[in-house]
């Protein structure tokens, strides 16, 4: 499966009209798979499932309700609610009527919500009673409607009960759009600075379909669990559309992380394909290997990771505990879908992010935008366009243009390619450390650190040094049973020196009880650096508490 073949499956995408929701939902109902479960939901208390036919009718009701409120094609309608069946119905309903969905992670505080609603000129937002207080009452002249799911009291405009909005005929209704029309607007994770509003188009479905086939390895009858929240691109592109375009059932777990519940979810639903992130795998690792022994993972066929570099130690853990290799894949909010992956058809190389998808030209370029030979560290770049590529940074053409250099899309990540075409992530360009004339990616050092039995997680930064340019400092959290000591710090430094290289060993180690992370689970090295150097921390709207 490649993009050209995908175009044959969805010929309208290039010229003509259609809708990604038709391909992800209605098409399956029309071909007789309406009774297949599309979504299994549980949160420990509530358990529910929805078939493709049910999603078709409920999301049609919501789409009609939006129309009745005066929402028009191209309007931005946001979602700010915990994972629940309603979230999925609303998301599909928004896209079904041609509006642009703006999913927000439920943990955002008021100012983060305000920023995003203001930036995008949102017309409506769907939320729950408990999150309502975080929706600003002022400064949002364009926000005409707030739809509240599960409200106990009577609501007055601009508030509307979700259940009331849903009171519409349930026969299928779909707005046809062109492939280039807006699909969703995702704000980036904020790891490197202020989050950007990244606009995607319906035509991205070609890419999502191909990723589903060649990276996520979907097969008929699969039960797929992607742990990412729909507030992030992984949660929509890989979590919802890729599987539903293939008619594959998804598993959605509400509530907070608990290692037992996570393992139990895999067992209970017989999950066959599981997509999570390094931070989650590291949390499971830290919870110990006795917990997973109580569960049955025999149905699990394929395990994936994205969002952050995947430490080889985590892959080794996966082999032991899950009996599966974890397949790392690389992409960004801006790329819209997977770009580079340890695809199931090639051997996994530990610590590498694999090879590009067929049809994607990925390269390493220098500061002028010239391609570099193998084994040279440089900027990871993609030759545009590709189907799921962002169509705009919302309201900021200048920012959009700043991604391009000499015809390349520049990712902002630093990497190299080996002779066999595998790509190796080194770090964010801004995080690469220059010490005594050597360029060192923080990822390699962090991966070595977490191989030490005492280390749970590590964040590595460079700090200015008059002699060496920069020296390496590591912030480390410890596994259960270990406590900070000068002796342990010396031991850990020695460990990296012996196992990686003397020049890559941290000169300083600071033990911490936690690392600053984005709400999508990424270590925020810029925050470590700002704290260390006493500099302003910048936008912290996505910082986890
Ligand atoms: P912001 O752009 O706001 O600073 P962000 O870059 O973290 O935040 P995302 O679009 O969510 O926002 O994340 C994309 C980035 O995540 C990539 O540029 C890369 O640095 C990192 N990433 C994603 N997948 C991988 C992976 N498999 N290996 C290494 N890094 C990855
Ligand atoms: Mg980014």
From TrEMBL:
One GO CC term, this protein: cytosol
Primary gene name: acsA
Highest taxon of the lineage: Bacteria
Xref: SUPFAM superfamilies: Acetyl-CoA synthetase-like
GO molecular function, one term: acetate-CoA ligase activity
InterPro entries: AMP-bd_C, AMP-bd_C_sf, AMP-binding_CS, AMP-dep_synth/lig_dom, ANL_N_sf
Designated name of the protein: acetate--CoA ligase
Species this protein is from: Brevibacillus fluminis
Pfam families with a match to the protein in the record: AMP-binding, AMP-binding_C
Keyword Ligase on entry: yes
